[in-house]
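Recall the central idea of this unit: under ordinary conditions, the amino acid sequence of a chain determines the structure it adopts. In this exercise we apply that idea directly, starting from the sequence alone.
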Amino acid sequence: MTNIPETGRTPRVQIRLVVIQILVLSLLGTLGGRLWYLQIRNGDEYAKEASGNHVQQVVQPAVRGSILDARGVPIADNETRLVVSASRTDLMKMQDDGRAVLTKLAGVLGMKPKDVIQKVRLCDAKTPQPCWNGSPYQPIPITDEATARQALQIRERSEDFPGITAEPEAMRRYAAPGQANTAQVLGYLSPVTDDEITKAKDTDSPYLRSDQVGRSGLEREYDKALRGKAGVTRYEVDNLGRVIGKAKADKAEPGANLVTSIDSRVQRVAEYELNYAMEVARTQFDKITGENYKADSGAVVVMEAKTGRVVAMASQPTYDPNAWVGGISGKDYTALTGKKSNYPLLNRAIQGQSAPGSTFKVISTAAAVQAGYDFDGRYPCTSSYSVGSQVFKNFEGESFGPISLGRALEVSCDTVFYGLADNEWKKDGGINPKKKPKDYFYKTAHQFGLGKETGIDLPNEVTGRIPDRKWKADYWKANKAVWCKTGKKGGTYVQQIAYENCLEGNRMREGDSINYSIGQGDTLVTPVQEAAIYSAVSNGGTLYAPTIGKAVVSADGTSVQEIKPKVNGKLPVSKATLKGMNEAFAGVVTRGTAAWKFGGWPQDKIPLHAKTGTAEVYGKQTTSWLATYSKEYTIIMTISQAGTGSGASGEAVRKIYNALYGVSADGSVDKKKALLPTPQKGLPKIQADGTVESPRVSKDPVKDLQASEKPEDGATGQPLPAGTTASPGTGNRDTRRRTARRNKGRGKRVLT
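Accordingly, the structure predicted from this sequence is:
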């Protein structure tokens, strides 16, 4: 007889079954609890998230705000174009994915079927352009150049074109009122990138994939205000992408308008005169190089002297910003960015930097006074200045005897400044400086705002360069290896310079300081920096940060955010010294280096002041600089490889002043012809419907001014540009040419 139960289960088996039952019940309890948590406790939250997976957005782009000149004339706005678009959602419902409809559409639009079909493809890593990188639920534009007839064909035969729409839409336009291009100031737009969308995701101004973004100029600087807020319509779709309902819609909010200090009429005159001056320079012969001047680039800035507001800013070479509207072709992009076109996208007023030549002497004068030299003292203006075996010549070997600093500015005497800078270099310890050298000439330049951005409200401004001791040490450290590798004692000019820089490029050499005093050597400035400096001299010493934006005004005109002028600092110059400088710069116009270009100017009615500059660049022709100012305005013009400051730029700058003040070639003043005798103060009015009260714009202010002038005696009968004056027979005065010479015993290198 046995004690085994009838079931055949031993106690050990029963224990195992009990354990298994407990585990199963535990798992069931856990799963039940989790289901309760997901479906009951957090059911609404997950249901909302799940529904979100089936909501797609269709974006209605906001109308971008206009950019207006100071009088309210649009220089960048929007125009209505007929845009033909395709709904990819509707096309995908068709058996052939809409190929037949798109082929028929291509016939109406005069396009190739292949091009139309490619435009509705979705972009991915394997799909090249053209393709659509926006939402697949958003209408995809096929063309923005449809004619009214084409649009009517599509709309009247809607049954033949399911999923196709032809609607008027706002597109960016760079209006060029009065032919004022304003390209580099305005900038351009292009589609937003994935990286930009990601970076702006959690900001107060996120991007949508359909957004156009400012890439340069004012379009970039004020992009957030101009862009507005796009409208978003949310659609519920099923797992096949079919729309099953409308969830929510947010209306688009148009962007604000930007009122600038630019006067489109003055802008046109500035652009024309800069371009014309360059054309004239190319017809003149450079005796030094044995060929005509190249005049390959240039810039001009017209600024309000008392506020720093920019009235006009032009850069050459230039381009048409409308090339970017609707997408730029590869051919056009290559033309705008290639070396052959000399990089027209660059705004040389804020990005072009070169040696300032004698226009830098305003700083050297201030530095000398800070160092203790009397402004009215007497300093030898000799024909040359010798240092050891080196000879530094004055301009054309001129000699004026003992003269004051003011007179040295008038006649642009180099040797006066050579001597002052050399004396200070020696006082600071020479090639082996004191522990704390005074460095008046370098410190003063920094106090004038050089070596850093002015803070103008445009992107990508460059700093220029003041080659002080710190810069020389840093530059030597960065380039020493190359210099020591390529340098050769007694080799070619370039090899010898590299050799000397290898040995002592980190030291402030005597020749460096001498060259620096007249704006040569390693010194670099930009036209807008010079404009800020000479405006400060005009207004009594206040350095303003140049500004172009004047106010941001909402689309309905109810909200106005004024952009006030910003002060960067004060010139380190006393009132007495400023008075002396003003008298000297006025003398430049009446009896100094610019007098031959300003003969007959009504100086008693509209006092002008000027400083000419002829900067030399190794391997190139001389750069022309002309810095001028009146009580109201400062005008700076520079042209690369164009000759002397007054020779290349004098007439052009005078013509801009003629246009501003209504001055005729004979010196008479007609206020009715004056474009802007005093700066624009008020803001244009913007109505509630978005329209702007602005004056009528002439087709071309330059031609109007030319037509008002009578031909000069003996002329061909063709009207001359406003303010044209007879030029001396030389056309463009010869410039001094400094040849590289070295002090073999001291290893110094200078341009003399």
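The chain has a mean pLDDT of 86.
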